[in-house]
Design brief:
The chain is built from 20 helices and 16 strands. The chain has about 525 residues and is mainly α.
């Protein structure tokens, strides 16, 4: 069985860069296709909600030529008694959630987590078709509706693989991400064609460092080409910025000439995997749909989809403004990439490049302090560069300068005090202080942010608070596991007996990064 790629109409893409990229780079991946190019069939399935989860249909695999299926649909839908769901089940292979079939068997939690890795591990894809982009090596998926690799999830998953001595699988994960960089020039949100217009928080250098803990620091040099390419992706267009044209893709030039970064998506339409939800949100916005969609997609690149962090009014997705924000966490991650590049260029005695990155590091450190630190609040905030002001949104992203040792001792102490007084709950740390019914807001806590907070506070000697966060978070994981036999994507940290909710889909079980962080904390 063979499938041919449907050529993407460039009207769906708003930059010449992406249109050329799709035609020249993606087209050679014979067998994958873009499900939104199924036209009326795609939109009808999404609008009519024949599946409860909008992501379900975009993960289906056509069991024939997609063009022929679309043509057949246009004819059959006019017939009396036509059943859309029956048509889809006849012409597509439906996705299966393998993890949901797994049961803990009342195993102790650590034994359960060790046994769960094979359930979450996927083999290199041989058969072709559908939106899944084949990867050359084994990889670990989060679980539930997330049937593919995810970029920033994978770092926290790898923490657990390291504890379980799954070094070969760690290597495979890093090699898959290197492959994606080599293939596309960046690491997509996930290995699906509908994720190819955005990335996720750039944790690749941290993954390589984690592997280096097992194989030696020299491992970093092996991945220098991919580290350089990914950094170039995030910095694309920086040399052409000016006072009159101060933004391009992920780069923003501030009034003092310093360049910082934002989240961005090269498309400005409703997401293929959330067509109905995005269309509804854009309709609520005062902005034109293409601007609202861009902000929504940028929030997805951040990984915090969705949160009051990105809302101008702090309450409603209708006010989403993600691409107008310079996020503190993103710029800390890119600073770390710059520090790794400096280390590698210095080791190679390339003094010209080393000096360039010394300057970049100094500039970015200074800018993070200038634009994101708020002395009166004693906290790090994101910066809204259109309004030239802090967002004043309290979020646990403020721990990133502590994780990467950017904060001063005095700043770290103030952040720690705020974290303890305002974010610490019986079950761990809140993500934000606003209860908006979005999943990255109060009352939910998430494993990656517990880990970043725990390690960041330890960096500055706040051991009691760090250990209290660890104790409460692990206890929450254990309590829910004892009750359900599952590890969850997120938790209600205000009440460990309650089920976490909010967002576009039900709480998922599996769950890669929760497993990884729990295992890593168990060894601390």
């Amino acid at each position: 069985m063979s499938h041919r790629i449907l050529r993407v109409n460039s009207v769906h893409y708003v930059t010449p860069w992406l249109s050329a990229y799709i035609n020249n780079i993606i087209m050679p991946f014979t067998g994958v296709f873009f499900i939104e190019t199924l036209g009326a069939l795609y939109t009808d399935v999404q609008v009519q909600k024949i599946f409860p989860d909008s992501k379900y249909f975009v993960d289906c695999i056509p069991n024939g030529d997609p063009v022929a299926i679309l043509n057949l649909y246009e004819k059959e839908k006019l017939q009396d008694g036509f059943d859309l769901k029956e048509f889809v089940t006849r012409h597509f292979i439906l996705p299966v959630d393998m993890v949901s079939m797994y049961r803990s068997g009342n195993k102790p939690i650590l034994q359960h987590l060790a046994a769960l890795w094979p359930e979450l591990t996927r083999e290199p894809r041989v058969t072709k078709g559908g939106t899944l982009i084949p990867l050359p090596f084994q990889y670990v998926v989060p679980g539930g509706r997330f049937r593919e690799i995810y970029y920033w999830d994978s770092y926290f998953t790898m923490l657990g693989l390291q504890v379980c001595r799954q070094v070969d699988l760690m290597q495979a994960m890093v090699d898959n991400f290197a492959y994606l960089v080599d293939s596309f020039g960046f690491i997509p949100n996930g290995n699906r064609t509908y994720y190819l217009s955005r990335s996720q928080p750039p944790f690749f250098t941290l993954m390589v460092e984690l592997l280096a803990e097992e194989k030696g620091r020299a491992v970093l040099l092996k991945y220098l080409p991919q580290i350089e390419k990914e950094y170039a992706f995030w910095m694309d267009g920086e040399k052409n910025l000016s006072a009159s044209g101060n933004t391009y893709r992920h780069t923003v030039q501030l009034p003092d000439g310093i360049v910082l970064n934002r989240y961005w998506d090269d498309k400005n339409t409703a997401r293929a995997e959330a067509y109905r939800e995005d269309s509804r949100a854009a309709a609520q916005s005062a902005e034109p749909p293409e601007i609202a969609h861009r902000h929504i997609r940028a929030a997805c690149e951040s990984g915090w989809d969705f949160s009051s962090r990105w809302f101008k009014d702090g309450r409603s997705i209708a006010s989403i403004q993600t691409s107008h924000i310079i996020p503190v966490d993103l710029n800390c991650l890119l600073l770390h990439a710059e520090e790794i590049l400096l280390e590698l260029y210095s080791a190679a005695k390339n003094e010209q490049l080393a000096e360039n990155f010394r300057q970049r590091i100094t500039q970015r450190k200074t800018a993070i302090q200038q634009y994101c630190w708020h002395e009166a609040a004693g906290f790090y905030f994101d910066y809204q560069f259109i309004d030239h002001s802090s967002t004043h949104q309290f979020t646990v992203a403020a721990v990133y300068p502590l994780f990467f040792s950017i904060a001063s001792v005095e700043q770290a102490a103030k952040v720690a005090q705020c974290i303890e007084e305002r974010f610490l709950q019986p079950g761990g740390l809140l993500t934000t202080l606003n209860n908006t019914q979005q999943q990255w807001d109060h009352p939910n806590g998430w494993a990656p942010l517990q880990w970043m907070s725990y390690k960041g506070l330890k960096n500055y000697g706040h051991m009691a608070l760090a250990n209290e966060i660890k104790k409460r978070w692990m206890a929450t994981n254990e309590k829910i596991y004892a009750a359900t036999g599952k590890m969850m994507e997120k938790y209600d940290v205000t009440d460990a007996g309650s089920k976490a909710g909010g967002g576009e889909y039900p709480n998922q079980d599996g769950f890669g990064w929760t497993n990884g962080v729990y295992l890593a904390m168990s060894q601390e």
